[in-house]
From TrEMBL:
Residues 33-154 form the Integral membrane bound transporter domain. Pfam families: FUSC_2. Keywords: Membrane, Transmembrane, Transmembrane helix. The chain crosses the membrane at residues 12-37, 43-61, 68-90, 96-118. InterPro entries: Memb_transporter_dom. This is Integral membrane bound transporter domain-containing protein. It comes from Nonomuraea aridisoli. Its main location: membrane. The keyword Nucleotide-binding does not apply. GO terms for cellular component: membrane.
Length: 362
């Protein structure tokens, strides 16, 4: 129980370490937007300036820069349309329906993105129901929203989260998932345990979420290095994660087929030999090596050497159908991971032992 609590605390602290820069962006950006709107624009209560900062930075944690811009413009549009109409027709149920309908209609005509339209409508609701119009001009709050949005984007650029840490954390989760699937499949073969093989298959089926989260994190990291001068020098370091993105996705897809065939093979007359489990475990360990080396920002030479050793290993003979499929998928995983280390496809494929020749032991 204490171990699980310690692990949970470590996980939360690690998450906080990644999110802390964004908290600082929100806090500092909101204060600056408030001061700018009061001192430079002369608005006495610029409610939407700090709110726009929070919305902009919050979306910027895991969304594309284009969506951040859409959100800022959507806020400004909703505030502008809502403020102008409410100042003319007042507040009430039918006024609310009219304001929201017009704001969203204008948003659809300008940009059909769901986030853009929804933000325009929700901002119009705020203006029509919560914010009094006395003492503010029809375009004042629209200017506040734009000011806050610009300052929010500047905060992402000048007080950014570490792009390398964001990408490394999510790639680590993908490689850890791959290693776990291969290790569980190897144990299932060694123990002739169909239940354990079923667990490996279930684990493999849940890995796509990690891949998708890594893709989003990598996109966010690339955008930070694009807009933030503080992290321009990290582009080369981040390129290793870009190189690994597609191959590790393919490796996990092949691992899913491998796990399914592992379960099938345990019901055949000739189950897979222990040597196949040993090869799986070696690939699993190589995936962890790749995780460590890329996480440290190093060239993954040790992982590449380990994978090349597996690729040259002698294959078991006289296997059942499912076992042959397992070997084919494991070879594909090896090729994928070699490409993740930086090798091209032709070179990685050439490293495999030819199917019609026995391999040589070093």
């Amino acid at each position: 129980m204490r171990t699980r609590l310690n692990d949970l605390v470590k996980e939360r602290l690690g998450t906080f370490g990644l999110i802390a820069p964004s908290i600082a962006q929100c806090a500092v950006g909101a204060a600056i937007a408030w001061v700018v709107a009061i001192e430079l624009l002369g608005h006495p209560r610029p409610f939407f300036a700090p709110i726009s900062v929070l919305i902009c930075v919050g979306v910027g944690l895991g969304q594309r820069l284009r969506r951040v811009v859409e959100l800022v413009v959507g806020v400004s549009l909703g505030v502008g349309v809502g403020d102008l109409l409410v100042s003319w027709i007042g507040s009430g149920a039918w006024q609310l329906a009219l304001v929201v309908g017009l704001a969203m209609t204008v948003a659809v005509l300008l940009n059909s993105g769901a986030l853009f339209v929804a933000q325009a409508g929700s901002s119009a609701v705020l203006v029509a129901t919560l914010v009094p119009t006395e003492g503010a001009g029809g375009l004042d709050r629209m200017a506040d929203a734009l000011t806050g949005g610009v300052i929010g984007i500047a905060a992402v650029a000048l007080l950014p989260a570490s792009p390398f840490a964001i990408a490394a954390k999510h790639l680590s989760a993908v490689l850890d998932a791959l290693s776990t699937v291969l290790e569980q499949a190897a144990q299932a073969i060694e123990r002739r345990d169909a239940d354990l093989a079923a667990e490996a298959l279930e684990e493999a089926r849940t890995t796509q979420t990690a891949v998708e989260e890594f893709g989003a994190a990598l996109q966010t990291s690339k955008e930070i290095t694009m807009i933030s001068p503080l992290h321009w020098h990290r582009r080369a370091r981040l390129s290793r994660h870009e190189t690994a993105a597609v191959p590790v996705d393919l490796a996990l897809r092949n691992a899913r087929v491998l796990a399914r065939r592992t379960l099938s093979s345990l019901g055949e007359a000739s189950p897979p030999p222990a040597a196949l489990a040993e090869a799986m475990r070696e690939v699993s360990e190589a995936a962890l090596l790749l995780q460590l080396e890329l996480g440290a920002g190093r060239e993954p030479t040790l992982a590449r050497q380990a994978l090349l050793a597996v690729a040259a290993r002698e294959r078991p003979r006289e296997l059942g159908f499912s076992a042959h499929v397992i070997i084919a998928q494991l070879r594909s995983v090896v090729v994928d991971l070699l490409q993740a280390t930086g090798m091209d496809h032709v070179e990685a494929t050439a490293a495999l032992t030819p199917l019609d020749e026995p391999a040589r032991r070093d």
